Amino acid sequence: MAVKKFVVGCFDDEAVLFPAVKKVRSAGYKIHDVYTPFPVHGLDHAMGLRETSLHTAGFIYGITGTTTALSFMSWVFTTDWPMNIGGKPHFPLPAFIPITFELTVLFSAVGMVLTFCYLCQLAPFVKKHVFHPRQSDDLFVMAIELTDKTRPEEVKAFLDSVGAKEIHEQTVEAGWWLGRFDKEDKLFSQPVQPLNA
Amino acid sequence: MKDQFVVPARLRTTSFVLLGIGLLTLLIGLFAFSGEHGSTRFWAGILQNSTYFLLLVLASTFFIGATTLAHGGWQIGFRRVPEAISMAVPVLGAILLVVLGFLIFGGKGHIYHWIHPEGDKVLEFKSPFLNKGFVSIASVITVGAWTALTLKIRKMSLAEDTWTMSPDAGKRLLWRNTVWCAVFIVVFALSVGSTTPWLWLMSIDAHWFSTMYSWYTFASTFVSGMSLIALFVIYLKGQGYLQNVNDEHLHDLGKFMFAFSIFWTYLWFSQYMLIWYANMPEETVYFQPRVWGPFRPTFFLNLIINFICPLLILMKRSTKRNYTSVGFMAGLIIFGHWLDFFQMVMPGTVKELHFPWYELGLGLGFVGLIIWITANQLAKAPLTPKNHPYLKESIVHHT
Question: Is the confidence at residue A188, as pLDDT, over 60?
Fold first, then answer.
């Protein structure tokens, strides 16, 4: 994964963040991502992200589950091992419906979780760079990727003008990697002073 | 901003034409279905339509009550629409009470067999519950309570327009709404959620019983009630009103229609599958004429319209945000659940499947009546409840 340069601006108010996102976009800077402590409605539209295709994937997984359940059960009970259960016909559709429903839900749920993890590049033991430790606490963190045409000072000044409270520059791997955070981030590697020492 | 609805002449004409069709059908039916056997169809059609449309408009009050108790803010922008629809409850309730009076005390048609339980062990056993006195008193009380609470909620909402607002006044307004809506929800749960469908509809097949029946009826009326609200919202948007309402609100109405179609199917199937599985004669007797008898076509048509179509069409996000597709589905769902009530009433009364021109004609009459009442009520007050504390939440609403 390539190492990239970022200018990170931190905002402490949603109401400042939204106009800032719009101004940064119209100024032509490339927003890598905006990290927020909670889901912010409409931020995806403001950032110009495309509609997710996760639900289409979910539909396809669901259809797969439906087909799997129905075809497997009908094959078992009509061809492979027909059984007389309470005098019901060998193809008892109403009795199949709950299992079909459950398998549809199971396939689409598990499939969508895995797809979501893939799309967000999440997996066990995979680490992603944290631009600011308070991005999961109380700060809205906007990371702007620097290209060879943008100068960091200019971006910093611009972020300052749109209301960022804290601005700094980072050189990081933007993707995902296997490994540990403490090597990358010095946040928790400070020696802890015991109380009453 | 256009906020005061003026009933367009075309809408008024449409409602009068529909009402005229209904009355004409009633008149034709009176002559066409005379005699011992014919009058059953005459009264069954009236019973089906009056119960369905009463519960349909009552779903609007339920919607107001449920969203108020949940402290929902998104619906405030079009809250006057369900309020206006719910003002049909007193009229349709009165019609239903008259019909029930004819059926129970006038001995019209052969609808309710429990009127004469003599010699029938099952009906004699049920007679402490299913008897003329209890059913009629319970019906009068429930319709009376619905009417009183619906009028109260509407009156409070209109009175709020004249208030001088302050934070304290806002709190008082929310508190009053919450209290009265809570009372309504309790009444609704005890009536539509449990006994009312047993008395009016399930007692047609008096030997049979199902514990799912009331929930299933409730799901049916709630999903069609949401569709009716969506239709009026779309109509008003088309006329240039309700400028605070946009795709986001339509999307949420579409979600309600989608979700409660699935909920209806869930209850419908739960009722069907348990009876199918246990295969006991006293329970399967209900599905005999519906699945294997003359009503087989409408049985499956019902399932296609009310489950397959909403599932496949309303699943996509873009169809829930499109005025044409939501409007089309709303109309289809209202018709589909009308057909569901047809399925509930007709096999136990008329026993044969006829082309339902008479029932459809009556249905159009009720639709005309609802349009006329709703349009007049919409015109009585500004379309935006400007003093409601949650109005802003509705304006900035984002799904």
Answer: no
Percent share of chain B, pLDDT over 70: 100
Chain B hits for A43, Cβ within 8 Å: none
Q: Count Cβ atoms within 10 A of the Cβ of residue A23 and give its class: 0-12 exposed, 13-18 middle, 19 or more buried.
A: middle
- Identify the domain containing residue A61 by its residue range: 54-119
Give the closest of B277, B315, B399 to A95, CB-based. B277
The pTM of the full predicted model, rounded to 2 decimals, is 0.88
Look at residue A144 and tell me if it is in a domain.
yes
- Measure the CA–CA gap between B152 and B31, rounded to whole angstroms: 41
pLDDT digits (tens, 9 = 90+) for A57-98: 999 999 999 999 999 999 999 999 998 888 888 899 999 999
A50 vs B contacts (CB less than 8 Å): none
pLDDT in tens, B40-58: 899 999 999 999 999 999 9
Q: Which of A41, A86, A94 sits opposite B272 (nearest CB)?
A: A94
Of the candidates B130, B107, B270, B282, the one whose C-alpha atom is nearest the C-alpha of residue B204 is: B130
Are A104 and A132 part of one and the same domain?
no
Domain endpoint, select from A92, A119, A146:
A119
- Residue boundaries of the structural domains of chain B: 9-395
Which of B273, B276, B398 is facing A41, going by the closest CB pair? B398
CB contact under 8 A, A42 and B317: no
With beta carbons less than 8 A apart as the criterion, state whether B111 and B44 touch: yes
> Residues A128, A45: one domain?
yes
Q: Which of B62-71, B114-123, B306-315 has the lowest mean pLDDT?
A: B114-123
Whether A39 and A11 share a structural domain? yes
B278 interfaces chain A, CB cutoff of 8 Å = no
The stretch A125-132 carries a mean pLDDT of 80
What number of H helices and E strands is found in chain B?
17, 0
Q: Is residue A189 part of a domain?
A: no
| Whether residue A42 is found in the same domain as residue A71 | no
Distances (CA, A) of B128 to A118, B6, B117, B187: 63, 51, 11, 22
Chain B residues lying within 8 Å of A95, measured CB to CB: 273, 277
What average pLDDT does range A24-48 have in this prediction?
Answer: 89
Whether residues A18 and A111 fall in one domain: no
In whole numbers, what is the pLDDT of chain A averaged over residues?
85
